[in-house]
TrEMBL record:
<dbReference type="InterPro" id="IPR050498">
    <property type="entry name" value="Ycf3"/>
</dbReference>
<keyword id="KW-0732">Signal</keyword>
<dbReference type="Pfam" id="PF14559">
    <property type="entry name" value="TPR_19"/>
</dbReference>
<keyword id="KW-0802">TPR repeat</keyword>
<feature type="repeat" description="TPR">
    <location>
        <begin position="100"/>
        <end position="133"/>
    </location>
</feature>
<keyword id="KW-0677">Repeat</keyword>
<protein>
    <submittedName>
        <fullName>Tetratricopeptide repeat protein</fullName>
    </submittedName>
</protein>
<feature type="signal peptide">
    <location>
        <begin position="1"/>
        <end position="16"/>
    </location>
</feature>
<dbReference type="InterPro" id="IPR019734">
    <property type="entry name" value="TPR_rpt"/>
</dbReference>
<dbReference type="InterPro" id="IPR011990">
    <property type="entry name" value="TPR-like_helical_dom_sf"/>
</dbReference>
Amino acid sequence: MKLVLPLLLVAQTALAQEDTCPQAPDHSAETDRIIAELRVAPDEATARRISQGLWSAWLEAPDARAQALLDRGMALREQFAFLESRDVLDELVEYCPDYAEGYNQRAFASFLRRDFDSALPDLERALELNPKHVAALSGKALTLMGLGRDEEAQRALRSALDLNPWLSERALLDEPEGEDI
């Protein structure tokens, strides 16, 4: 009996570790460099190419299990299976509650269903975890527009454009009011 208890504790610890998501890779230096490049990109095509580096960083999940969930959730979303995508992404954010992209992708699945009320908290959580997540910022702007919260949407859009002035959503920016010349 004395030997069984320590073995049970070891087994429980091993099982608990399997259910613990590791820390997401830290790409902050890389994303800061990419954002600096985006701010001085000479044209939209160049900026689009540069911004792929952001997606490469964001889409690197913390481990194989998280990567499989992310990839599956995104594949389902691309097949227009939005509810199924959300279910898989629910599992991802439950497993990896500190991985910003899980929330961003779940928000996107909600957004595509026009479920803006569900998308917004996920975008806000993604931005808590990664304040420079340009896609989450622009997604927040679009979601706020969908909710009719235009002033907040414009602030979010301006924040996104501060990071990447070449976003296609820049066409939605209200021009500041000024005097006619």
